[in-house]
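Reminder: ligand-aware prediction takes two inputs, not one.
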Amino acid sequence: MTDLAAVKAALKTQAVETPSWAYGNSGTRFKVFAQQGVPRSPREKLDDAAQVHALTGVAPTVALHIPWDTVDDYAALAGYAEERGLRLGAINSNTFQDDDYRLGSICHPDAAVRRKAVGHLLECVDIMDATGSQDLKLWFADGTNYPGQDDLRGRQDRLAEGLAEVYARLGEGQRMLLEYKFFEPAFYATDVPDWGTAYAHCLKLGPKAQVVVDTGHHAPGTNIEFIVATLLREGKLGGFDFNSRFYADDDLMVGAADPFQLFRIMYEVVRGGGFTADVAFMLDQCHNIEPKVPAIIRSVMNVQEATAKALLVDAEALAAAQRAEDVLGANAVLMDAYNTDVRPLLAEVREEMGLDPDPMGAFARSGWAEKVVAERVGGEQAGWGA
Ligand code: PSV
Ligand code: MN
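Here is what comes back for the chain with manganese (II) ion:
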């Protein structure tokens, strides 16, 4: 039997980090469609994020992206967040939008470019010191397009060297989270293409280096929950970049393409003790055609629903069925949890937290969307700078 009170208590302590870039304009490589009322500064992004947290109660931190969220005074930005009931979360580095990075960043054949990239990463750690952020998020667009273009092995050596320099700079309580992605923008070889490569580098670096699983960064058919279970078992799962995909790195709302996969992932998190441990649950999404703040609220709710279902799995019944070699029975225990309509449970959880049981409706009624359209006139809307 699952303990409903414990499930509710766990859901109340959940924390989903929202990404600053999801509040700004974004698009495909073909077109960025601007939307009215989009934030024009990191502060306005935090204003929007505060709405998401106020309505869901479980989105207390916001990830920044440097240089998209560059400000003069990061401590002041952290103070601004705090006044709105938020904290600044992971600092996302950017070593992919400068002409110098055409052939890579910390894996680049030219030492001067590598130095520049490492310099940027060290600067991101300085920012973490000022904001009180715990995590430096690293995603490298590095790779090659043609066989023979560069030395695959040499690039791994350069990667290890650059990462080690940044690792040595991390302070007490700070971590580096290394993302992998199987392709794009490089098409022949990517320098951190899979969890194994990320894991090997993190293992060598030490306990402050952890792997982050971006759910959109796998080949179709990949068993992501197996990767999650394995990384958790090895103590190397630093967090998630949640989003969903139909084809490649689509950056759609988490739980939109495959809610069953999200449930299976969250079940392994619960099973592996990751729900209470130091695993960061972040979104990494772009809302190109849909209104952004409600899309982020919906995404947070999708994570909550998958988590609630995962928490509802009757662990004892499942273990008993597995021991009894009851294939269908074991599968049924998992499916019973997945097929539970957890929306009434989450509505109750919200009411107990003093929130509106219907965050989407509450946002529509709040008038926030109309207010920012009226107020955010002039200036330059925030975007991903592509
Ligand atoms: C690019 O694929 C990416 O989505 C990575 O997943 C990063 O986390 C994100 O951009 C922000 O740099
Ligand atoms: Mn990501």
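DSSP finds 14 helices and ten strands in the chain. The chain has a mean pLDDT of 97. We will return to this case in the review session.
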